[in-house]
Write a structure and sequence with these properties.
single chain; alpha/beta; Rossmann fold; four-stranded parallel β-sheet
């Protein structure tokens, strides 16, 4: 099985991190490779950089996604996720969606802890878009960005642990998602300091992608509307221009995509 991880920001060190951590989470025999956004923000921390990252994710998929059995969008907040699913011929799993779906699989409410103040309202809107606002206890942001945490996690452990405890003790969260590609693999270092289970979004997304890739292809629904029309474009990469001109959408229902 082949998984493609797309890091839609331009920090190669984040790509290296998610590749290493995805390899630990993947089943034996799964081949994981990762690609970095060709353009855009070094790290996504605003609405503008989020929108640009969606384009970068499509661009990366068009260039590298042909032979993958499943794709993981390795960015919490999932920029470009629905467009990727429209374009892709294989399952596409968003890290944030997968983490939220895992969090509501058990009773109680969940919380999200992440780096970067502007992510607070963005993630609350994201969770509402999933129809899970009633299950969200809190979103706590910390001052270091995910990129800062990834480059030197040690100094951030105390502030992350405090934010997680606040989610549990003040807001009543039954479990806490550590959101952000830059926080991948950090849960073991915090688990003993937080009185609730912690969820690593990348690990959850990798396992969901493996599960979907192993399932038989979904049958096209009878009475489907006309196929997605080709899109004429200018100024895009050759690979993305070609893909848009003859894109194929995967026949997956919403419940099969996370």
């Amino acid at each position: 099985m082949k998984l493609l991880l797309i890091n839609p920001n331009t920090t190669a060190a984040i790509t290296d991190l998610v590749l290493a951590e995805a390899g630990k989470a993947a089943a034996p025999g799964t081949e994981v490779r990762a690609v970095t956004g060709r353009f855009g923000a070094r790290y996504i921390a605003s609405r503008a950089s989020y929108v640009i990252a969606g384009h970068a994710a499509l661009d990366a998929y068009a260039e590298h996604g042909t032979d993958a059995d499943a794709v993981v969008l390795a960015c919490f907040g999932d920029p470009g996720l629905h467009a990727l699913r429209e374009m892709a011929h294989q399952p596409v799993v968003g890290m944030a969606e997968a983490a939220c779906r895992a969090a509501v699989a058990e009773p109680g409410r969940f919380a999200i802890v992440t780096g970067g103040e502007r992510w607070g309202p963005m993630l609350r809107e994201f969770v509402a878009g999933l129809g899970l606002a009633g299950r969200l206890a809190a979103v706590e942001t910390v001052a270091p960005s995910g990129a800062d945490i990834a480059s030197d996690p040690g100094p951030a452990l105390d502030v992350l642990a405090e934010a997680c405890r606040t989610c549990v003790e003040k807001h009543g969260a039954s479990r806490v998602i550590l959101g952000g590609a830059g926080l991948a693999g950090i849960t073991p270092r915090l688990a003993g300091r937080v009185p609730a289970p912690l969820i690593d979004g990348l690990a959850v997304a990798v396992r969901a992608a493996e599960r979907l890739a192993a399932e038989p292809p979904a049958r096209p629904q009878s009475g489907d509307p006309t196929p997605t029309p080709s899109i004429e474009s200018t100024g895009l990469s050759a690979a993305l221009t070609s893909r848009l001109a003859g894109e194929r959408g995967a026949a997956l229902g919403p419940d099969d995509r996370c």
